[in-house]
Amino acid sequence: VAHDDAADDALDAASVSVLARKRKIATDGASAAGAAGKGKSNVTQVIQRVIKDLSSVAHAHKDDVYYALHVTSGVPQDALHLLQNGSASPDFHVWSQEEDELLLSSDEKSVLQLIATHGRSLVLTRRAYLG
């Protein structure tokens, strides 16, 4: 599969756009209710655009895009790699349902094992993604 620099640029732009919109929402001087409503709409539009772009670039069904985004903690570049290559790269981890269950459990030993296996930063990122 050929590497598509234009696709990477589009996804990078989408990621930057998400961050810019989040910052705008956070610093908007409007009322809290107005900012929340506006922010939700903007974020939803950006997410929908990222899903559409990934689907188009990777020639993948939207269900596959949703799955790829979920197992890569919502990182568009990692999801694109997974969709195009069918596997993870050394640069990111594809999370399993079992790992998610362990991460969300109250079993400290399991969480520490995940940290030992994947690193603190990756585990914290995944935990934040899962909410």
Task: Provide an overview of this structure.
Helices cover 76% and strands 0% of the residues. With 131 residues, it is mainly alpha-helical.
> Hey, roughly how much beta strand do the residues contain?
under 5%
What is the radius of gyration?
17 Å
Count of DSSP strands: 0
- Helical fraction equals over 70%
The succession of helices and strands, N to C, reads: HHHHHHH
The overall pLDDT, averaged over residues, is: 79
Shape: globular
- Could you list the spans in which at least 5 consecutive residues all have pLDDT below 50? 14-36
Number of helices: 7
Largest sheet: none
Derived from helix and strand composition plus strand pairing, the structural class reads mainly alpha
User: How far apart are the first and last residues' alpha carbons, in Å?
Assistant: 34 Å
Q: What structural keywords apply?
A:
mainly alpha, 131 residues, 7 helices, 76% helix, globular, single chain
Give the helix/strand layout.
Blueprint: H1 5-27, H2 32-58, H3 62-71, H4 76-85, H5 97-104, H6 108-118, H7 120-130
Helix pairs in contact: 1-2, 2-3, 2-4, 3-4, 6-7
Can you summarize this structure?
This protein is an all-alpha fold and 131 residues long.
